[in-house]
Amino acid sequence: MSGRKDREARRDERLQEQQAADASARRQQLIKLASAIGFLAVAAVLVLIVISQSQSGGGDANNLADVADVNQSLGGIPQEGMVLGDPGAKVTLFEFGDLQCPVCKGFSEEILPSVIESQVRSGEAKIDFRNYTIIGPQSTPAGAAAIAAGKQGHGWNFVELFYRNQGEEDSGYVTDEFLTAIAKGAGVPDIAQWNKERKSPEVLSAVKSTTSEAERLGFTGTPSFAVEGPGTAGKQTLGTPGSSGEIESAIENAS
User: Is 0.85 topped by the overall pTM?
Assistant: First the structure.
């Protein structure tokens, strides 16, 4: 009798072990499926952004778009250099971008506005734009022009307005005339000073420095993001998030 009970107990034990193994395998499959779906969702967002930008015009110094919209959207938010937001904000979001990058343009129009309106405008976080010039030769003078505009408190206006009027990559549209039109539209008050500073060794060196920083962080594309705050150990890399919600969650976790 006891032998039969022992066999039944062992059988029940084997069944329980098999059920646990099957459940674990199903969980792993679900995790892999969820990861694949998440990756595909991000990829789909980026493809749609690139397609959208490739179908739009731009690069016309004599016909700038969205000047009033850009300046209004940033109105009332402090700026210092290339940092947008309260200097005392606990969390810093770093954006490494190339002003010629169509995906960066898409992020500036579709992803970042809600972050700026909520967490930046409220003082919870600030955004530090850093040049990561990977598209081509015209990216360097574009980035230098943005830094020079930042020295007069209009760096983010320059960046956002440039994106809204971005032309085809390295097509020759980044001329002195185009950059000057963007600077004037962004509200840079002293164009002569801006012209001098955007060509200075100091500013050109700054463009190279942040590009090198992006490479040290392991970034291989633009835009790439990192976050730093009380809840992180230095800069925590985020890569290229697929939504504003991902960025907002990273800022909350860094607080």
Answer: no
